Amino acid sequence: MALRHEKSELLKEKIAILPSTPGVYMYYDKDGTVIYVGKAKNLKRRVSSYFNRTHDVLRTNLLVRNIADMKYIVVPTEQDALNLENSMIKEYKPRYNVLLKDDKSYPWIVVTNEMYPRVFLTRHHIKDGSKYYGPYTNTAVARTVLDLIAKLFPIRNCRIPITPEYLSRQKGRLCLQYHIKRCKGCCTGAIDTTTYNGYIDRIRQILRGETQELLNYLRAEMEKLAAELRFEEAQELKQSYALLENYRSKSVIVSQTIGDVDVFGFDDDGGKDVYVNYMHVRRGAVVRSVTLRYKRSLEESRAQILGYAMEEIRQSLAVVYDEIIVAEAPEVEMTDVSFTIPRRGDKAKLLEVSERNARQNRVDDLKFMERHNPAERTERLLERMKSDFRLNELPRHIECFDNSNIQGTNPVASCVVFRDGKPSKRDYRHFNIKTVEGPDDFASMKEVLTRRYTRLMQEGEELPQLIVVDGGKGQLSSAVEALDDMGLRGTIAVVGIAKRLEEIYFPGDSVPLYIDKNSETLRVVQHLRDEAHRFGITHHRNRRSKSALVGELDGIKGIGPKTSEALLVHFKSTRRLREANESDIAAVVGQAKARIVYSALHSVEQENK
Description:
By secondary structure, the protein is of the alpha+beta class. It folds into five domains: about 10-90, GIY-YIG endonuclease (3-Layer(aba) Sandwich), CATH 3.40.1440.10; about 110-210, no CATH class; about 260-370, no CATH class; about 385-540, UvrC, RNAse H endonuclease domain (Nucleotidyltransferase, domain 5, 2-Layer Sandwich), CATH 3.30.420; about 555-609, DNA polymerase, domain 1. The protein has helices spanning about 10-15, 45-50, 60-65, 80-90, 140-150, 165-170, 175-180, 195-205, 210-225, 230-245, 300-315, 345-370, 375-390, 440-460, 475-485, 520-555, 560-570, 575-580, 580-590, 590-609, and strands spanning about 25-30, 35-40, 70-75, 110, 120, 130-135, 260-270, 275-280, 285-295, 325, 340, 395-405, 410-420, 420-425, 430, 465-470, 495, 505, 515. The strands form four sheets. Strands 12, 13, 14, 15, 16, 17, 18 and 19 form an eight-stranded mixed sheet that branches. It has a five-stranded mixed sheet with strand order 9-8-7-10-11.
């Protein structure tokens, strides 16, 4: 059995709480030097694989022995991880990475800054006003896009430097591309620049990721070829279609339009803890990421905390700011520094990546806290929920109700119970609606709450601190009526969840509360509602199956309610009973009744055929 590599307690903790998302990881030695940079589709799985076995390659074993610390950056996609890994290897030149000796990077598609622009693949960047799209980690995808663009738009591919002076000399000669209708004769001025630039504008749209036009064209061509029985050509187009569906026009992480900037992303769920992520971008690529954690003491604003973070990064990392990308302007004065608050484009996407990393650090800290001090984490969560729901006490016991019926049949309701923010499944309860005729969710909600809490009070059981009903103002009003009738109004808090989970309704308040999407409270509410819905739907399906089975057996002469009940308990559904042979049924109800049931069910099948 292979021996596992020893790792420090710090590394064990970091690996245990790693997210299962795309990203880039950096390994550091005891001196704090980056010794390896790697990419991962799943960070947790990839990083863990280094330490849970010995490796066949000696160099990898040496790397693992020298790892003293590890950091990571999360990104939206695997392609972004590949781009970020490429740029960070060039920045840090880690000793255990295979370095790019020719210093080549991934190719880009360029739209040149000319009178009649050209569109082609390149690894070289010239600052002449041309627009670059990419980078492309999959060159086959880039070439497919270029080939399809060439088929759709008659743009030139020659290198002739066409200018007004060149056209005035009338030395251009129409080439083969013109005669096969791949070009409109730019070199002779046969097409005006307005029409030509119209093609270029549409190409720019495609290169920005707006590929629907190309996809529609390919689908139409595939269908046409298939109709003509030209299946091999249709298959080639199908492969191009698949490549294009996976096509990404540009990387969030690497952009030739950004240059050298600093980015500060914020994660604030309204509580005491605030996370600020700092990213340094050099030559359009992220090369450093640091996340700071602050604890509010005097209700400091986001702008104030952002100012603190900028000053701390400036002093600790000796950073000289030029342009800073932020979501809002900080409360700090900085000379010769411009603040950019992007709403769209590359800079907005870069800010989103920084905010994603700030948010991930919050999640990591919560996981760490839960592993080492679960009681403290629970108290923090309950305090936050108490504040969000305007409660007088901590909601240690929460109950959530949901109605379930399909076209008014077999109406049921579910009650799920959470204790200290976690499901207590042994306390879950189902209710079959008894007094309500038809699909009336409001009356059903009132009946269920009345039955539930009347019984709890009669049995002397504890009541919850919070009731959550799945529905808007109507269901909430029914719940309030039930509590009023039982004299529990004011004893138990109750809220309603509208269709969108961010909307929480309070009794007597027509304007809903919108909970922050990053709040732990919202995650608990989502879990409550999902559990109530799942539990209710499962019970409802079981009732429908039982009703169908009982209905099927009711018409069989010689089979009474007790026999039907025994078959129902054993086989669960009509389908399973039909699939059983006579001996299986006899094992439950005896040979004589089994013969009657089996014959009746299968004679019906023969009649239906």
